[in-house]
Amino acid sequence: MLQQEINYRPVRGKTYSLFGNAPSSYPYYKLIENLADVCLQHYDIKMLLVEIQKASGKKKLLKKLVKNSTNDTIVSFVLNTLKDSLWIYTTEVDEHLRNLSVFKIWDRRLGTTEEQYHLYMLEIELMNRIHNENFKKCEHKIALLPYCLQDFQNGCKSTKGDLDHICKGCSGRCFINHASRLLRNNNVTPYIWMSSSIKAFPKLLKAKQQSIGILGIACIPELVWGMRMCMHLGIPVVGIPLDANRCMRWMGRFHENSVNLEKLNDLLSRASESKEQPLILIAERIKCE
After folding, report:
1. Is 251 helix (H, G, I), strand (E, B) or coil?
2. Is the pLDDT score of 247 beyond 70?
3. Is pLDDT above 70 for 273?
4. Between β-strands 188-193 and 237-241, what pairing exists: parallel, antiparallel or unpaired?
5. DSSP string, 33-44
6. Residue 98: which residues within 8 A CB-CB, separation 6 or more?
7. pLDDT, mean of residues 70-90
8. How far is C-alpha 229 from the chain's CA centre?
9. Is the pLDDT of residue 285 over 90?
10. pTM, whole model, 2 decimals?
11. 28-to-118, 236, 274 alpha-carbon distances in Å
12. Domain boundaries, the chain
């Protein structure tokens, strides 16, 4: 089986790694679910999401709220709930920011602070919970997979499809290949996101008279940006972050990367309309180092 050939091992990114000190990134997902549950004991999910999105761009305010350690606002409560648990996944952020050039410090994605990362992590979890049911009901579901998940030793042999590039399944070491199989098994059409624009999707699908849902995979800052754009366009969206940020934009060249297929399997289990065949038990088929 191709799944047995994947070498799922911890990777470090330029600013974050969802492995922390564990051999898998799955403990991170259990943690962020639990932290979301804690926050939702105090606040309505939609109100919480709005407040996080409003505050997440205010870097100085977020830094101040963490230093003061007060819980007199929603965002202050959330930040102080998250920081003691999530810091292990963002240990490289401060060094990255200190070494950013003057020309890059104003790049919103490259300049993401540790407080922003923690809010983004929670935001992704909240958006998945809010949009899961509507995503499930969509007539046409699309997944956008990042180019950096390919097997760089083999070289990507994807071909251009109707919306973007399509995986040809050429390598058993390729996370795009394995993710694409999972997605197709759950009636989600996977594309390697290289040239298409999210803004073009509603127009394309309107011509087919179909509702559209999008599943995104990207590094945390890019995923949040893409999910927010989908929300703005009225597109039901769910997403899962890459295990680390290791592409050319962050590290100067591409490094092998991964996504937690077990978590993707879970996300698809909640969103899948297909009951015809059981989902692949990814956890049992991936080698861990």
Report:
1. helix
2. yes
3. no
4. unpaired
5. HHHHHHHHTTS-
6. none
7. 91
8. 14
9. no
10. 0.89
11. 12, 24, 28
12. 12-288
